[in-house]
Write a structure and sequence with these properties.
By secondary structure, the chain is an alpha/beta fold. The chain has one domain: HAD superfamily/HAD-like (Rossmann fold). About 40% of the residues lie in helices and about 15% in strands. The protein contains eight helices and five strands, in the order H-H-E-H-H-H-E-H-E-H-E-H-E. Keywords: Signal. InterPro entries: Acid_phosphat_B-like (IPR005519), HAD-like_sf (IPR036412), HAD_sf (IPR023214).
């Protein structure tokens, strides 16, 4: 597993938690995304879509990772799943603003996450309690997707949306695997996350 090397852990902690730069960088990204989104003329037929990742894109798991040296310790799926069950991941404030503005602008919003289908109910509740509502779809890993890398799984699911007729105007994620591969949106935007890497 990819971990933050010892020499960088203090830097990552300062960036993510104490220095404020993470939030500032997230805000700058969202300002640029909104400039693009609000320049578009949508068809208004309900097929103009935008795709978000969930973790570290809509929801912040910093309260979990601060107990694991901000990525300095190897990922533990059992403790992370236990955290997900608590449904306490807060919204990234800038992402919630972006989400609301895109919804108002007329985009159909899809959340495409690496979480498992078995986590649907708790994910829905966490998203709603964090302030997200009115999405067109929440796409999670089904049993047939288990073991598939994110860089294969996510393009496959985007392709299913395209085949249904949706126009993907934008997508936002914190990992390059959220954004790579076929069935790209017209524009892709990456949010910062130095804590971990998903291929």
């Amino acid at each position: 597993d990819w971990v933050v090397v010892q020499q960088m852990r203090d830097y990552v902690e300062k960036y993510m938690k104490t220095g404020g730069q993470y939030w500032e960088d997230s805000n700058v990204a969202v300002v640029n995304i909104l400039k693009y989104a609000e320049s578009l003329t949508l068809a208004g037929d309900g097929m103009d879509a935008w795709v978000f990742d969930a973790d570290e894109t809509l929801l912040s798991n910093i309260p979990y990772y601060e107990n694991y040296e901000y990525g300095g310790l190897a990922f533990d799926s059992k403790t992370f799943d236990a955290w997900v069950l608590e449904m306490k991941a807060p919204a990234l404030p800038s992402s919630l603003l972006l989400y609301d503005r895109l919804s108002t602008h007329g985009f159909q919003i899809f959340t495409l996450t690496g979480r498992d289908e078995a986590q649907r109910n708790i994910s829905v509740q966490n998203l709603v309690e964090a302030g997200y509502k009115g999405w067109a779809g929440l796409i999670l890993r089904e049993e047939s997707d288990q073991g598939t890398s994110a860089s294969v799984y996510k393009p496959k699911k985007r392709g299913e949306l395209v085949k249904k007729g949706y126009r993907l105007w934008g997508r936002v994620g914190d990992q390059w695997s959220d954004l790579s591969g076929p069935y790209e949106a017209s524009r892709s935007f990456k949010l910062p996350n130095p804590m971990y890497y998903i291929g």
